[in-house]
Write a structure and sequence with these properties.
By secondary structure, this protein is α+β, with helices and mostly antiparallel strands. The chain is built from twelve helices and eleven strands. It has a five-stranded antiparallel beta sheet.
Length: about 300
C-alpha cells in the first residue's frame, strides 16, 4: 500500500518529542515549522484561583508546580505519571494534546491506514490488543493524550491562535471518517489551556493501568475529582483515557455518585456503570475490567 501524500504536509514542532519519532521512522516526511511563541510557557493565576497554562509549558513544570498540585491535583498527578523524566522535561502541554496516534499500524510507514489516507483501519481486523473498548467509528486507536484525560475531568478550555474557548471534547472530537486525531485546522496552533477555579473542598486523583512498569502508554487511565460533604458525594467528574478514540467522561458513573452517600456500595455501583455503552473489540474486552477496577480504586482513595 502507498502511504498518502498527506503525511508530507508541513507540521508544527515545539519540543518535537512525538514528531521526531515519527520522522525517524519515516511516517512524517514533510517540512517542519518550528514554533516560537514567547510568553506561552508558564502558568498564569487569576484572582479567583483559576489557572491558565501556556501551551509551551512543559509537562515537568506542571507536575512540579506546588500551586498546581494544591489547586489541581488531578492535573499535576497526570503530568507526573506520564512518559519518562527526560520526556516530561521537554514535552509541552500543547504538544501532548496535539500528538498523533500511537497505533502500530499508523506508525508503520509502509501501511496506509485511515489516518494516512488509506481506505480502512487495519487494526480492526488485525492485531488490536491495545485498541479501544468503546468502538465509536472506523478507527479503533485510542487517543494517546493523558493530559487530555485530566483536562476533560477539569472541564478545561483551549485557546488557539484562531479560536477561544474550545472544549476538550471539541478539540479532540472524533471525526466520522476516523482520519483526524484532533480538530485543529491546518496551520492552527494551541496557545493556552484555561482551567476553571477549583472548588472548595475538592479532592482529585489520577491512576493508570500499564503493561510494564515505566515509559508506557496506559491501557486504561482515570482522572477523578469530587467534593464530599456531609457524608455524600456533592460533585463528581470522572474522565477515562485509553478506551476510545478520544478521552471519555463517565457520565453514568458520575450520575450514580452525585447526591449519594459515600459507601462501598455506592462506589461499587458507580464502578460497574463505568463500562456503560462499551463496545469492546475481540481482543480488548480485558479493558472493561481494568476500567471498572480503576474507577473503584480511585473513588475509594478519594473517599478515604
Amino acid at each position: 500500500m502507498n502511504v498518502s501524500a498527506s503525511m508530507t504536509a508541513p507540521e508544527f514542532r515545539a519540543a518535537g518529542t512525538d514528531l521526531s519519532e515519527r520522522r525517524r521512522t519515516g511516517v512524517s516526511k514533510g517540512p517542519v515549522v518550528d514554533l516560537v511563541l514567547p510568553g506561552d510557557d508558564g502558568i498564569i493565576w487569576g484572582d479567583d484561583g483559576a489557572a491558565t497554562i501556556g501551551a509551551f509549558a512543559t509537562i515537568a513544570t506542571i507536575a512540579a508546580d506546588k500551586k498546581m498540585n494544591d489547586a489541581y491535583p488531578g492535573v499535576a498527578a497526570t503530568a507526573a505519571g506520564l512518559a519518562t523524566p527526560q520526556i516530561r522535561h521537554l514535552a509541552t502541554l500543547g504538544g501532548n494534546l496535539a500528538q498523533r496516534s500511537r497505533c502500530w499500524y499508523f506508525r508503520n510507514p509502509h501501511i496506509a491506514c485511515l489516518k494516512k489516507g488509506g481506505n480502512d483501519c487495519p487494526a480492526r481486523t488485525g492485531n488490536h490488543l491495545y485498541s479501544v473498548a468503546f468502538d465509536l467509528g472506523p478507527c479503533v486507536a485510542p487517543h494517546p493524550s493523558s493530559m487530555a484525560c485530566a483536562l476533560l475531568a477539569y472541564e478545561a478550555t483551549v485557546t488557539t491562535d484562531r479560536r477561544k474557548g474550545i472544549s476538550v471534547e471539541e478539540l479532540l472530537g472524533y471525526s466520522s471518517d476516523g482520519r483526524a486525531d484532533h480538530a485543529l485546522q491546518s496551520g492552527e496552533a494551541i496557545r493556552s489551556i484555561a482551567l476553571p477555579a477549583p472548588l472548595a473542598g475538592e479532592r482529585a486523583r489520577y491512576k493508570r493501568a500499564i503493561s510494564r512498569s515505566y515509559a508506557e502508554w496506559p491501557l486504561v487511565e482515570i482522572c477523578a475529582r469530587a467534593v464530599i460533604a456531609d457524608g455524600a458525594f456533592k460533585f463528581v467528574r470522572i474522565a477515562a483515557g485509553g478506551i476510545a478514540p478520544r478521552p471519555l467522561r463517565l457520565t453514568t458513573s458520575e450520575a450514580a455518585l452525585e447526591g449519594r452517600p459515600v459507601s462501598e456500595a455506592t462506589i461499587a455501583s458507580a464502578a460497574k456503570l463505568a463500562i456503560d455503552g462499551a463496545k469492546p473489540l475481540p481482543m480488548t474486552g480485558y479493558k472493561l475490567e481494568l476500567l471498572s477496577g480503576l474507577v473503584r480504586d480511585l473513588l475509594t482513595q478519594i473517599a478515604a
